[in-house]
């Protein structure tokens, strides 16, 4: 038994935030942002929009693309680090919006690699015959959690809001299937846990999980050692692509499209150089959406589908790297 991507969907909020908009707030310039990250603009939510709202919009599009109803789903996996609430998991809120009671709804918290982890879990549930149709979603609202002041400028320029989703379906006879997930590969290294993290709220804080002092000191905002993350990403992502190819006896030049996590265009250019592949085979969306963490991979794939770039039958290699550290890859016949 194997799984295949039966449908894709994505959703981004209407509000466009340009580099010029951020330059006013962050003691930076539009050129600095563009030159160092490749980002021109990102989408940020307005009002009371929640992460599960974005997830819902992406999910219904993916379900429509796969001609699947809520009643067809056997499981929901939602990757996010920007949950609606601390608990219960955002997958439960999404499940309620979709009207799919009774099936397992699971949150996956693996930051930028969250969707890759969720995809791996969904694929393995299907391979073992425990599920036949699984909704996998990556959704984030970062704009409500950033330090929008000069102190947070290294991070706040990077992140955007958005969501992407796949419906995976079982393939009974993989030898006869022209569309399937060949393999997924996931890794972590907790020695890098504090290279990109938000210290509070958390039960590791002394006394209460968050205090006025924490908020005044900005411990609830993400902080990052950007250089360290950059260097590790450039090492691990090519490694993970080779792992996926080697596992399937495939070669770099057989791959039609590479979808890399969208943290920084410069990272993806460096990864392409290390792999010695033409940058035109890497589908990047960071220029318009910024880094949407767990949503970058499905948002990129759905965008490529809607723009008639990615078509059925093409060979696709995915790779992610992010906080934790976490990283992973997959080889897929789309
Ligand atoms: O998906 C999550 C994983 N995250 C990532 O993968 C992010 C990886 N890292 C990066 O993308 C880059 O490290 C950044 C874009 C965050 C920063 O670029 P950089 O070229 O590594 O800059 P830097 O951190 O080495 O800082 C260089 C200078 C510093 O000033 P000094 O100390 O040289 O005077 C920073 O204060 O740039 C300054 N700086 C800025 N200046 C203007 C940092 N952020 C900004 C800014 N605008 N927004």
Task: Write up what this structure looks like.
The chain has about 325 residues and is of the alpha/beta class. It has two domains: about 1-170, Peroxisomal Thiolase, Chain A, domain 1 (3-Layer(aba) Sandwich); about 180-334, Thiolase/Chalcone synthase (Peroxisomal Thiolase, Chain A, domain 1), CATH 3.40.47. Helices cover about 35% and strands about 25% of the residues. A five-stranded mixed beta sheet has the order 1-7-6-4-5, with helices on both faces. Strand 4, helix 4 (about 90-100) and strand 5 form a beta-alpha-beta unit. The radius of gyration is 19 Å and the shape is globular. About 50% of the residues are buried. It binds oxa(dethia)-CoA.
SS elements, strand count: 13
Average pLDDT reading = 96
Order of helices and strands: EEHHEHEHEHEHEEEHEHEHHHEE
* Helix share, percent: 25-40%
Radius of gyration: 19 Å
Query: Which compounds are bound in this model?
Result: oxa(dethia)-CoA
Terminus-to-terminus distance: 17 Å
Instruction: Please identify which CATH superfamily of the largest domain we are dealing with.
Output: Thiolase/Chalcone synthase
CATH topology of the largest domain: Peroxisomal Thiolase, Chain A, domain 1
Main beta-sheet strand count, sense and barrel state = 5 strands, mixed
Count of helical regions: 11
Shape: globular
Count of domains: 2
Q: What structural category characterises the helix and strand content?
A: alpha/beta
What is the CATH class of the largest domain? Answer: Alpha Beta
């Amino acid at each position: 038994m194997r799984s295949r991507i039966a449908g894709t969907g994505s959703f981004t909020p209407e509000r466009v935030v340009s580099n010029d908009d951020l330059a006013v707030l962050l003691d930076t310039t539009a050129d600095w942002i563009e030159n160092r990250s490749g980002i021109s603009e990102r989408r940020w939510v307005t009002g009371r929009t929640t992460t599960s709202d974005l997830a819902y919009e992406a999910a219904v599009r993916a379900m429509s693309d796969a001609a699947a109803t809520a009643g067809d789903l056997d499981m929901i996996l939602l990757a996010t680090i920007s949950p609606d609430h601390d608990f219960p998991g955002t997958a439960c809120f999404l499940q309620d919006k979709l009207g799919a009671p009774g099936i397992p709804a699971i949150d996956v918290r693996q930051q930028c690699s969250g969707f890759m982890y969720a995809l791996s879990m969904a694929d393995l549930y299907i391979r073992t015959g425990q599920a036949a149709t699984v909704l996998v979603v990556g959704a984030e609202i970062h704009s409500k959690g950033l330090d929008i002041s000069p102190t947070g400028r290294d991070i706040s320029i990077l992140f955007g809001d958005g969501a992407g989703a796949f419906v995976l379906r079982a393939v009974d006879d993989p030898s006869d299937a022209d569309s399937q997930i060949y393999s997924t590969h996931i890794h972590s290294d907790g020695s890098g846990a504090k290279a990109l993290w938000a210290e509070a709220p958390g039960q590791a804080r002394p006394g209460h999980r968050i205090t006025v002092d924490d908020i005044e000191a900005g411990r609830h905002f993400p902080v990052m050692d950007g250089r360290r993350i950059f260097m590790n990403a450039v090492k691990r992502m090519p490694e993970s692509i080779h792992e996926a190819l080697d596992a399937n006896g495939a070669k770099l030049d057989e791959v039609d499209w590479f979808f890399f996590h969208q943290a920084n265009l410069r990272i993806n250019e460096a990864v392409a150089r290390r792999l010695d592949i033409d940058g035109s085979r890497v589908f990047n969306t960071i220029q318009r959406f910024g880094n949407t963490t767990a949503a970058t991979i499905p948002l990129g794939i759905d965008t490529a589908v809607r723009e008639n770039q990615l078509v059925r039958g093409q060979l696709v290699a995915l790779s992610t790297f992010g906080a934790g550290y976490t990283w992973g890859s997959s080889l897929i016949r789309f």
